[in-house]
Amino acid sequence: MKENHIEVPRSARYFTLGEVNAGLRQVWIVCHGYGQLPSQFLRYFRVLDDGTRLVVAPEGLSRFYHNHTSGSVGASWMTKEDRLSEIADYVRYLGVLHDHIFKQVRRDSVELHVFGFSQGAATVSRWIERSSVAPEKLTLWGGLMPQDVDLGVFRQKTANTDFKIVVGEEDEYAEPELVQAQEARLREGEVEHALIRFDGGHRLDREVLRVIG
Fold first, then answer.
1. Rounded to an integer, what distance in angstroms lies between the CA atom of residue 59 and that of residue 130?
2. Which of 36, 83, 119, 169 could form a disulfide with 32 if both were Cys (CB 3.0 to 4.6 A apart)?
3. CB of 132 within 8 A of CB of 158?
4. Which helix (H) or strand (E) holds 194?
5. Per-residue pLDDT reduced to its tens digit, 191-213
6. Residue 142 in contact with residue 174, Cβ under 8 Å?
7. SS3 breakdown of the chain: % helix, strand, coil, rounded to 5?
8. Domain limits of the chain?
9. Are 78 and 148 in contact (CB under 8 A)?
């Protein structure tokens, strides 16, 4: 048996909150967590919808039913199966989306904020390391940076980026020892960042969103 690959064209879905207008000051590209849908994920970002922000929420390329073969649907960025191909696919996808958005918005007129929640944190970490995207702000929320991210490359790519990591005190997916290990790794790699903690679990918090916005 031999494993083979081909590249195929396909449709990818994204949702937006806000409008392109003369008062636009920020573009957010926000990547949801495992099993979420961007239409639901965007609801948290309504606190930022003041006419100066365009929030863009791409959807992971793999959808699935939460309950066997029916009911609610979620999306995933990748699994462990054929992981390198899936990583390459979503890095390419996010790059295409980035370029599509900035055909409509003058890049030098806005601040770009790249945001990843849970599985989306790993997704945007790899995207930044493996592409030319240059955000002014980066937030990893409720998720860890993958071990396969080259911190030397990442440090260079984020040298001019305001990089924040946000963790809920009761987040079961970001246990204290894991956060401590990541902090030690980032310090050793000389990756400048700020760690923000809030009273909550594995979820977004609207008040903290306002602060980092």
1. 19
2. 36
3. no
4. strand 194-198
5. 999 999 999 999 999 999 999 98
6. yes
7. 35, 25, 40
8. 14-212
9. no
